[in-house]
Every structure is written in structure tokens, then in C-alpha cells.
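By convention, the C-alpha cell line describes the chain's fold. To illustrate:
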Amino acid sequence: MGELKFIDSILSGPPDPHSGTSHTPGEAEALDAYSQVVTRVAEVLAPCVANLRIYRRVGRMGRVEGGGSGVAITPDGFILTSAHVVAGTDRGEAVFADGSEAMVEIVGTDPLSDLAVVRSLGVELHAAQLGDAAQLRVGQLVVAIGNPLGFAGSVTAGVVSALGRSFPTRAGAVMRLVENVIQTDAALHPGNSGGALADSGGRVVGINTALVGPGLGQGLGLAVPINAATRRIIAALMTEGRVRRAYIGIVGGPRPVPPRLAQETGQRTAIEVVQVLPGSPADRAGLRSEDLIVEIGGAEVGSMDDLQRLTGSDVIDRLVTAVIYRNGARREIGLRLEELRT
């Protein structure tokens, strides 16, 4: 990979005293290759990334502007961004790096994933290609592209510093963890929320959502991944303007299963129930703290991402069978899932 060659070249050989710089010829070639990757990604994605100027009215103060960045995902006007960028409004303006402008309307927002879709009116867009964050590896080169100033985009590069992170989101009284968040050391700037995190092929693998400040890991940024789960969210926002989710009513997390259970089920992890919310479907079904959930509706559950994937709109108001282990004994219980109300 280009980034590994770049790192290897830095570690190999003393500087060439005749080069006029501190770089050996190998380092110069690697630096050039690194720059070419970043430049190519910027050239591909810069036309697809917009500055979103969001119009809000606050009391008697009149219109107040806020906003961030957005990524065009279809030629006919759909733009993907962060939900917090467009919170509290139904319209705004998209300004692209070439200076073109278009009014936008809010199509749908999902605060629980911090994703939103807006649509430009009457302008054909350069659409970015969506990738798959599930293919990322720690140490892989990524490029962050935003458009916080409208006419001058922002491009930074770094590596994936961690995968599998999570951060909390809230919609009303409901809280949820966004799973499989990408952590990167590519520098982010104010206004870059909603912009693209891309791999070396120029594919968008994440939507930049948060800048981690001093005391919390300075210089680290977070991005909501583009994967199978978020693609479904994006599709729902484009078609229905909202995301419907089924509600179980537990607080839990993944844990390794005991060796005997692993041999019996073939699973390495399951979801351990930490708390059952009173009056919830889980409460009515008889789930208890310390139960291990290994299946829902015949599908394996080994992570919170699995659980969220299996509790989409298609199982709302349906009775599904959950396989659990309690005190080492296998049980099957019926869960009638409700729609999550925010």
C-alpha cells in the first residue's frame, strides 16, 4: 500500500548529503506518491463537497446562519450531511468549491445516527462514490474533505487510528450509541462536520461528525461509518424522510461467551443484558439482567451493531423469537417489538 511504502522509506537509510534536502531519493519518491494519492482524492471529491449554510430563526433576532459541510451522493440533488448540522431548520443553501450555489431543503434527519439528507433544488451535482467502512484497517490512509468556507475547501490527510469506537446521540428522551465509529488523526476544522472521509480510492467511507478537543485526545476526529447499516439509514431518509426502528428495551453490550457455550453455538460473542427497562417489550417477555442474547429472529447476535441491524422497521409489531442463555441453560422467548418513539 502507498502509505506503508511511505512509512518504510522514512525508516530506511541515511539522508543523501548531495540531495540538498534531508530526504533520500527513496523518501522523495514515497512523499511524491503520498502527495499524489491525496491530490487525486481531493480532485475527485472536491466538486462533490458543499458548504451548507443553514438558515434559522431565533426569537426576534431574525435569521441566524449556521451550518457545516455536505457530500453530494446523487446527480439529481441528494446531499448527505450530519444531523446536527441541519438541526432546527428546514432549508438552507449549498455552496460548492467552484462557486456554484443552490437552495436546499431538508429531506430527512436521524439524530440517533447523526445523519441527514438534504436536496438541492434545480442543480445537477457531481456525485461521490460511497465505499464500505467495514473494509478499513487501522493505519490505513484516509483523506478528510470539507467545505467550511464555501469557496475554498479544506483537505487534510491522516490514518485510521482506531476502529469500533462509539459515541452517544440523543433524540428527545431517547439515547443511542452510534457503533463502529471511525477514529482518525486527519485534522478537522470547524465547519467540517458533514464532510467526507475518503479512502485512497476516493470512495466516501465516513461522514465527519466530531472533533475531539484537548483533554479528550487532541487531534483526533470521529466519523460515522458508511456501511450496510448506515446505507439503510440513508435510503430511509431519502425515501421516507425518517428512520423507523424497533424497540427492545434493554441496556447491554457485547461480551465473550464461555468456552462451553462457544462450542455449542459456534459464537465467540453475545449480547449481555445489563438492564431491562420497565414496561418495555424485553420486560414483558421476561428478559433479565445477565441474560446472554445469541439470536434474534434466527440471526446471530454478537455485537450491538448486529442488534441494531436486526431491529429495523421490518420487525416493528412482529413477534420474533430470541434465543438466550440464562445460567448456562438455553431458552427461547417471544419478543413483540414496538416502534421506538423519540
Confidence is low (pLDDT under 50) at residues 1-21. The helical segments are 2-11, 25-45, 228-240, 259-265, 281-285, 304-309. Residues 25-45 form the longest helix (21 residues).
